[in-house]
UniProtKB/TrEMBL annotation:
InterPro entries: Asp_semialdehyde_DH, Asp_semialdehyde_DH_beta, NAD(P)-bd_dom_sf, Semialdehyde_DH_NAD-bd, Semialdhyde_DH_dimer_dom. It is an enzyme of class 1 (oxidoreductase). Pathway: Amino-acid biosynthesis; L-threonine biosynthesis; L-threonine from L-aspartate: step 2/5; Amino-acid biosynthesis; L-methionine biosynthesis via de novo pathway; L-homoserine from L-aspartate: step 2/3; Amino-acid biosynthesis; L-lysine biosynthesis via DAP pathway; (S)-tetrahydrodipicolinate from L-aspartate: step 2/4. This is Aspartate-semialdehyde dehydrogenase. Keywords: Amino-acid biosynthesis, Diaminopimelate biosynthesis, Lysine biosynthesis, Methionine biosynthesis, NADP, Oxidoreductase, Threonine biosynthesis.
């Protein structure tokens, strides 16, 4: 006996990946429903070798469904997630709406799977921001060994992190650079993204940081340890899929770069590719479609007592969203619902 699973946002970047990953990992599914907005009723989406017809989230009855993986943005989540949760269907949500709610666990299974038991307060579990998810997978095993005091991170985030419209804008604008008659001004992003980088993701906060940067701070504290100080600069780059991060870490205890490399090689969800030669590191195009968070360029920071630098790359639609949500579903299944 398997699960009755709903994927809400099934026509989007993350929803489509959720369906792919549920099928790839042979999640024990008895029945699956693909939902999106009314305009997408009947749109076909793939689930393994099957094709599903998309249904309307607005009129869907969640009664009798075990879990719903949501990837519809905060506004629609606010309207529909409580409806699903009240019907007894556990919501695993990708938006930022519930991440900071003390009654909702925020989970990266390699890091804090035990927090899953907190799901029952609201019947909702939150999935972190894409940049946070890949970073904390790398931070946790190092923190367990040498206690992290402070993290300074700069991100290089792909346009798929901004949904379907983000991908279309980079594609259309890139073509229009070679055909100026067909000008494509910035619409989804605040400045031209083709052949450019933009140091601005999400809205500005009062202190001058952006909400994306604030999310990395708040979510790292909630998932790993509230004592870790984080400062972030989040940048959008003209890459379709795959977020990269340059991470500087200051520890309480000394941690040698070779020991850090060994710890990360053994850590769940991590793949170390770190050769000090041309091409001996991972770039975003190489991580697309993969499950791992790739770590390269591990080296001592000689400007502080106990510091390391590293380069962290992952598929933002997978570990940053859909894969992590499916891993949460797997954890919920094995630890709580126990079907399948
Ligand atoms: N992309 C990432 O790297 C990433 C990472 C972590 C979290 N997330 C979060 O995941 C969510 C989805 O992101 P995405 O990149 O997949 O966006 P997307 O490609 O733009 O897809 C959005 C999906 O939500 C559906 N939707 C939107 N409003 C709806 C409504 N009112 N009722 C029903 N369905 C609605 C859309 O359906 P239609 O096609 O019918 O409009 C579509 O299926 C967002 O909350 C985002 O912040 C994304």
């Amino acid at each position: 006996m398997g699960y009755r699973v709903v994927v809400a946002g099934a026509t989007g970047n993350v929803g489509r990946e959720m369906l792919n990953i549920l099928a790839e990992r042979q999640f024990p599914v008895d029945e699956i429903a693909a939902l999106a907005s009314r305009k997408s009723i009947g749109t076909e989406v793939s689930f393994g070798d099957k094709t599903l017809k998309t249904m309307d989230l607005d009129t869907f009855d969640f009664t009798g469904w075990d879990m719903a993986l949501f990837a519809v943005g905060s506004e629609a989540t606010k309207k529909y997630a409580p409806r699903a949760a009240a019907a007894g269907c556990v919501v695993i949500d990708n938006s930022s709406l519930y991440r900071y709610d003390p009654d909702v666990p925020l989970i990266v299974p390699e890091v804090n799977a035990d927090a899953i038991m907190g799901y029952s307060k609201k019947n909702i579990i939150a999935n972190p921001n894409c940049s946070t998810a890949q970073m904390v997978v790398a931070l946790k095993p190092l923190h367990d060994r040498a206690r992290i005091k402070r993290v300074v991170v700069s991100t290089y985030q792909s346009v798929s992190g901004a949904g379907k419209e983000g991908i279309d804008e980079l594609w259309d604008q890139t073509k229009s650079v070679y055909n100026p008659v067909d000008d494509k001004p910035a619409k989804k992003f605040t400045k031209q993204i083709a052949f450019n980088v933009i140091p601005h993701i999400d809205v500005f906060m009062e202190d001058g940081s952006t909400k994306e940067e604030w999310k990395m701070v708040a979510e790292t504290k909630k998932i790993v340890d509230p004592s870790i100080k984080v400062t972030a600069t989040c940048v959008r780059v003209p890459v379709f899929v795959g977020h990269s991060e340059a991470v500087n870490i200051e520890f309480e205890d000394h941690l040698d770069e070779d020991e850090a490399r060994d710890i990360l090689r053994e850590a769940p969800g991590i793949m170390v590719i770190d050769k000090r030669e041309n091409g001996g590191y991972v770039t975003p195009v190489e991580c697309v479609g993969d499950y791992a968070t790739f770590i390269s360029r591990i080296r001592q920071d000689s400007t502080i007592d106990n510091g390391l630098n590293l380069w962290c790359v992952s598929d933002n639609l997978r570990k940053g969203a859909a894969l992590n949500a499916v891993q949460i579903a797997e954890t919920l299944g094995t630890r709580v619902l126990k079907k399948g």
